[in-house]
Write a structure and sequence with these properties.
This is VirB4. With 108 residues, this protein is an alpha+beta fold. The chain is built from seven helices and three strands, in the order ααβααββααα. A hairpin with a 2-residue loop joins strand 2 and strand 3.
C-alpha cells in the first residue's frame, strides 16, 4: 500500500473503502499496513499467505474472513471460457460459427 499512501488522496480512500480485500504480500511493512487498520493477526495473515495460494483476507466492518479461491473441480472446465486469451477466443469463435449462433445458451 506504500504507493497508495504516497498520494494526496490516501486519507479519503482509506476512509471510503467499505470492503477492503487484502492479497498476499510477503514484503508487507507493518507500519504502512497499520495506516489502513491492518495490524496484529490480520497483518500476519496478509504477510504469511503464499503468493500463488489464491488466498485473500476480506474485511467489512468488524468482521474479517480469510478466503481461498478454489479453481479446481468443476470450475476448471469453465476457466478456459472465462479466460480471454487469443487461443480461447479463437476456439469460442469457431464453436459459434460451427453452431451458427452467438447465443450463449446454445454455444456455452
Amino acid at each position: 500500500p506504500e504507493q497508495a499512501l504516497a498520494t494526496k488522496y490516501a486519507p479519503a480512500v482509506i476512509q471510503q473503502v467499505i470492503t477492503p480485500i487484502w492479497l498476499p504480500n510477503k514484503n508487507a511493512q507493518a507500519k504502512s499496513y497499520a495506516k489502513f487498520g491492518v495490524t496484529g493477526k490480520l497483518f500476519e495473515a496478509v504477510r504469511d499467505m503464499g503468493k500463488l495460494s489464491r488466498e485473500m483476507v476480506v474485511q467489512q466492518g468488524h468482521q474479517t474472513v480469510k478466503l481461498k479461491m478454489e479453481l479446481g473441480g468443476p470450475l476448471k472446465y469453465w476457466l478456459p471460457l472465462l479466460s480471454a486469451t487469443e487461443q480461447n477466443l479463437a476456439v469460442a469463435e469457431r464453436i459459434r460459427q460451427h453452431l451458427g449462433t452467438t447465443d450463449p445458451k446454445v454455444w456455452v
